[in-house]
Amino acid sequence: DIQMTQSPSSLSASVGDRVTITCQASQDISNYLNWYQQKPGKAPKLLIYDASNLETGVPSRFSGSGSGTDFTFTISSLQPEDIATYYCQQYDNLPTFGGGTKVEIK
Amino acid sequence: QVTLRESGPALVKPTQTLTLTCTFSGFSLSTSGMCVSWIRQPPGKALEWLARIDWDDDKYYSTSLKTRLTISKDTSKNQVVLTMTNMDPVDTATYYCARIRIGSHNYFDYWGQGTLVTVSS
């Protein structure tokens, strides 16, 4: 199975800060990488698909990049409503998720 | 409007078999490319993909859990059923079903609200 290593596992940033999360695949997955946001007690919500495509209705401060084994998710200006845990997920083979990154406000 | 809803027991005993049902609306599992997956999340931990069933009845399972899982569908009832045998306390988790459209949209675009299953004697 393809392993997804996500970092950091948690971070604390101020409102307006730029936040970056990375995800590394154990083998080349091309651009078969999605990013989800999960708020406490809720199901995950798709934000980015195919590594860099913004899902309809998702604010433009969210973005993704990368291909092959290394991927990056960015929040350009952190907002209070962005407090959540973020997960990467690959679909090159049977789906696997990263370990998650919990984002908090400093 | 696409919706999914999980149902099943909130509590099961160790060694028992868990049966969960995902009832959905707004799409048909007989449409080419349409699939439903089960995903779980132990309290405070990461998401774990479990299984997928496709419109053509192809089935896929987590490598680590495939000996314990069975997924099936009833297209006429718009339901997908997951059974997991030999339940253990480590299987305590919120279980989600989610839609995925293979080929054009390889992501989980709609999720149920999840159902918490606790394994305890």
What does this structure look like?
The complex is a heterodimer of chains A (106) and B (121). Chain A has 106 residues and is mainly β. In chain A, the strands form two sheets. In chain A, strands 2, 4, 5, 6, 9, 10 and 11 form a seven-stranded mixed sheet that branches. In chain A, a hairpin with a 2-residue loop joins strand 7 and strand 8. Chain A is globular. Chain B is built from no helices and eleven strands. In chain B, the strands form two sheets. In chain B, strands 2, 4, 5, 6, 9, 10 and 11 form a seven-stranded mixed sheet that branches. A four-stranded antiparallel sheet of chain B has the order 1-3-8-7, with no helix packed on it. The mean pLDDT of chain B is 97. The interface between A and B is medium-sized, with 22 and 21 residues.
Share in helix of chain A: under 10%
For the report, how would you describe the main beta sheet of chain B? Answer: 7 strands, mixed
Beta-strand segment tally of chain A: 11
Q: Enumerate the spans of chain A where pLDDT stays under 50 for 5 or more consecutive residues.
A: none
* Series of secondary-structure elements of chain B, N-terminal to C-terminal: EEEEEEEEEEE
Oligomer: heterodimer
- Low-pLDDT segments of chain B: none
* Average pLDDT metric of chain A: 97
What gap, in angstroms, lies between the N and C termini of chain B? 40 Å
* CA distance, first residue to last residue of chain A: 36 Å
DSSP E strands of chain B, number: 11
Instruction: Give the helix level of chain B as a range of percent.
Output: under 10%
Q: Biggest sheet of chain A: strands, sense, closure? A: 7 strands, mixed
Number of helices of chain B: 0
The whole-angstrom Rg of chain B is 14 Å
Structural class of chain A: mainly beta
